[in-house]
């Protein structure tokens, strides 16, 4: 059943990815520039996902699959604690022992109370019987007083019977407690916290312990918990997604978890739950998380979600990781594959794409197609196109010979849209990938420490003037000489 859910989730995720490509391409590539003679194109490398920076990454942290909170039973005292904070425990291992002597004393007191109630009940029954006999012999004027006294004793007898039942229940509870003086761990795990305030002596002073623990509630555990145990051996990933991207994260969607240290180390799983009931606004989270500065002008709600892993081997509790939607990026097919949305007459004998030629002019580029991937809606490109080419979405107003404008930046899905501070285990690297430079719309490296100039919100560069061409270099020399 799980495999079936993963398969369905993969198809849906792939469809969502294809839909996203379609939207971005049709938004930019089908338009013309202000002079009416240019068409927007994007590189094949960007469209097909071979370039870095086109996959959303979400911050994540490894946490236990299960948390057990052990409480002290009412009216019971603990005499011995057999574990310490940070200690690993096995299922069935002794955690602490209740004080048996206090239970035995309470049991004796309750037994005496029950005997006293039974004797009281016998006395009330005798009184009622005597009063009823006397009432029969009494005058008419005294009948009422006898009636009142009899009813009062009957009410007292009913209360007595209720008290007997309550005392008997307490006795049974105490008798059961005498055989259950040991409390053992339900799971394999690590002792996260022991709340020593739950341990008190007869005079109310806290029992002296050789270790110091954090204040109540700081770790999210219940205020009633005496010992909090985090499960080991099976972990899950807790991530955060903002309201702009929450539509991409849903239960059952396949996920790739990637190490922040080694990009090649991954774990697979699926989204188990998206907690839409506990959103955190940017203002609420200001002391815990730092929102991506690109979204600082608007407030945004953030939602936690959880990834259930196929295997957690190699992960450590508290480890910070990246979370990605599994769109097949780790199972890249051999060769070049292109979305069917970008191909004209894909089902015909002469399929083609609108591509920029070596002079930056739009042309019909004939293709030889290979296999077709029904799940992703992609064709294998056997001949006619490379990753270095740039193509346009096949809009109706395109004509051969039009000038082309490179718009990869407006096409790309930026990383880091759900970034938070590095201190809290989430990524603040604007590129979304540690160690990779941040570039402007011309592909030139930006010095993130230089804040003297603001980057333009949008800059479209004709492909013939793109960085790396002779014309662009000549223009740069002219500007430098003029300066």
Short description:
This protein has 483 residues and is an alpha+beta fold. It contains 6 helices and 23 strands.
Outline the structure in words.
The protein has 483 residues and is α+β, with helices and mostly antiparallel strands. It contains 6 helices and 23 strands. It has helices spanning 2-28, 44-47, 100-137, 143-178, 408-411, 470-482, and strands spanning 38-43, 57-64, 67-70, 78-81, 88-89, 94-98, 182-184, 189-194, 227-231, 235-242, 254-259, 266-274, 280-281, 301-309, 320-325, 336-339, 352-356, 362-366, 368-373, 378-383, 390-392, 403-406, 461-462. The strands form 5 sheets. A 6-stranded mixed sheet has the order 18-17-21-1-22-23. Strands 2-10-14-12-11-15 form a 6-stranded antiparallel beta barrel. A hairpin with a 5-residue loop joins strand 17 and strand 18. Helix 3 runs antiparallel to helix 4 (143-178). The longest helix has 38 residues, at 100-137. The protein is elongated and about 125 Å long. The relative contact order is 0.17.
